[in-house]
Amino acid sequence: MTTSVCTGASTAAFPSFASYVRARGPVLLRTARALSANAWDAEDLLQTALAKTYLAWERIEDHNALDGYVRRALVNTRTSQWRKRKVDEFVCEELPEPDPVPAPDPAEQQVLRDAMWRAVLRLPDRQRAMVVLRYYEDLSEAQTAEVLGVSVGTVKSAVSRALGKLREDPALTRAA
């Protein structure tokens, strides 16, 4: 009696589903572990894929391609599980929502606006004009330069210096 060496999944090597699972189970489990988050999910995934394979065992014509068939079943099953994943909901007495942020006090906002305008009025005329055009009139640097008849670079440097003065203005730091 001659014994054949199993070099792949063939009809002679795997006359039954049970012999296929015994021989190839560890290899297929490694594939399932690569597709799953933990070992228990991998075992469940492999069991589901093998159940699908068992149901189709008689219809599978090429038993040389069994590993590919089971791997495809693993991937398809895992994809289906991922698509069907359920979001767990838990009942609780209080909603886990953060406390709403209180609306700013309109009086404090007005104090800050007044302090800002007073600080802008303390800027030199040219810087004040550029700040007003850029931030209150919402003009671009190029539009501001065109209105004032200066270069874009002049607008950039003057606005930068003006913003620096506003950041250092003691009246604004007290109002904020």
Would you give an account of this structure?
This protein is mainly alpha-helical and 176 residues long. The protein contains eight helices and no strands. It has helices spanning 17-35, 39-56, 66-83, 106-121, 125-136, 141-148, 152-168, 170-175. The N and C termini lie far apart (96 Å). Mean pLDDT is 84; it is low at 1-12. Residues 114-166 form the RNA polymerase sigma factor 70 region 4 type domain. Residues 21-86 form the RNA polymerase sigma-70 region domain. This is SigE family RNA polymerase sigma factor. InterPro entries: RNA_pol_sigma-70-like, RNA_pol_sigma-70_dom, RNA_pol_sigma-E_actinobac, RNA_pol_sigma70_r2, RNA_pol_sigma70_r4_t2, RNA_pol_sigma_r2, RNA_pol_sigma_r3/r4-like, WH-like_DNA-bd_sf.
List the helices and strands and how they pair.
Layout lengths: L16 H19 L3 H18 L9 H18 L22 H16 L3 H12 L4 H8 L3 H17 L1 H6 L1
Indicate the radius of gyration in whole angstroms: 37 Å
Number of strand elements? 0
Q: Average pLDDT, to the nearest integer?
A: 84
Structural class, from helix and strand content? mainly alpha
| Helix residue percentage | 55-70%
The helix/strand series, from N terminus to C terminus, equals: HHHHHHHH
Unreliable stretches: 1-12
Strand content: under 5%
- The number of helices is 8
Oligomer: single chain
> How is the biggest beta sheet arranged?
none
What overall geometry do the principal axes of the alpha carbons give?
Answer: elongated
How far apart are the termini?
96 Å
Domain RNA polymerase sigma-70 region: 21-86
Protein name: SigE family RNA polymerase sigma factor
Domain RNA polymerase sigma factor 70 region 4 type: 114-166
Keywords: DNA-binding, Sigma factor, Transcription, Transcription regulation
